[in-house]
Write a structure and sequence with these properties.
Blueprint (H helix, E strand, L loop, with lengths): L1 H16 L4 H13 L1 H9 L3 E4 L6 E5 L11 E5 L6 H14 L3 E5 L16 H14 L7 E6 L1 H14 L8 E7 L8 H7 L12 E7 L9 H13 L3 E8 L11 H16 L13 E4 L6 E6 L6 E6 L5 E8 L3 E5 L6 E9 L2 E9 L2
Parallel strand pairs: 3-4, 3-5, 5-6, 6-7, 7-8
Antiparallel strand pairs: 1-2, 2-4, 9-10, 10-13, 11-12, 11-14, 14-15
Helix pairs in contact: 1-3, 2-3, 3-4, 5-6
Amino acid sequence: MKTRFLLFALLLSSKLFAQLPPIAQALYDSAYANDPLRGQYATNNGAVPMATADGNTFYLKWFPTGGTPNSHPLLVTIHGTSGTAFDEFYLWHQYAAAKGVGIIALQWYKGYTQLPPNDYFDDIKLYEYIDTALTRIQYPSNKALFHGFSRGSAISYAVAFRDVQPPKGKNYFCTIMSNSGRPDSTYYLYNQINSGTYGHTFYNGKHWGMFCGGQDPGVQTCCAAMYNSQIWVEANNGIVGLFINDPSVGHGGFHQTPAYIDSCLNYYLPCYSTSIETHDNSQNINVTIYPNPFSSNTTIQVNKKFKNCAYSIFNAYGQKVKHVENISEQNINIKKDYFSSGIYFIQLTIDNKTITEKLVIID
């Protein structure tokens, strides 16, 4: 009797907390009942449920105490198959809070009342809901992190595409984290992209992270699928600077490993701090790196004189491994030194303008 009373109290508190239109409220209650402990965790930690403009679903909004939402780094995240917004909030919250990152967790699974293929919102509707959430808080462009897990990862490439496509794309995301899910070529949008309908430069300047678990048996989610995803993103001019491959874990290994969540946030935060552009044409600043890939040293050549320059190098886990300031020469030499082979990012700050490029070091 006591256990039943506690469960009833939890459900009652969630309904009192969520004041949503009928369809969104029913979906909220269903998602909450799927895991009341995670639902109550969101309630206890101040996650505010918000209805989408059409009232057909909801998202959880949370920001650190103090300041306004549009002044914080922001994670926009979507769950995997049959998941909930509560799952994503629970799995990210303590790590995001530690780094001052806000969270928008969107419920895009419609529940068991809808039969496939209508049990999830499509990429157009999904981006519309994200746009609504970010417009409401007046969030700036090119500053947010987008994350999708599993099925959410599979559609993350489409959401990133919508984000940069005029006239509705708002260019919110400077970093995308695709966690265990590839762009399936049978999906209508990816099929159009592969046929060349939109060209192959639309991801220009967008930074990507990816994760795969070596014990993941899924054809669409295993490491071979994610390596193909890297090739696909880079073929469309994106930059995959973070690729985590853990042979010892399975499908949910990213969220089960705190170091990987931190790596993703560390990889994203420099992007929030400065508006990253591959080339800053407004000031006619361009850089050339040769050779790249390199095995012993490389040279970064800046095309114009500057007052001051500094650079930081980040490894594939988003960790800063080198920083040099007060550079005055237009030709900057980088030695392999103690770096192991792999993919790195070099972030150059030239007279208060930031340019980020990929470095590839080989043996």
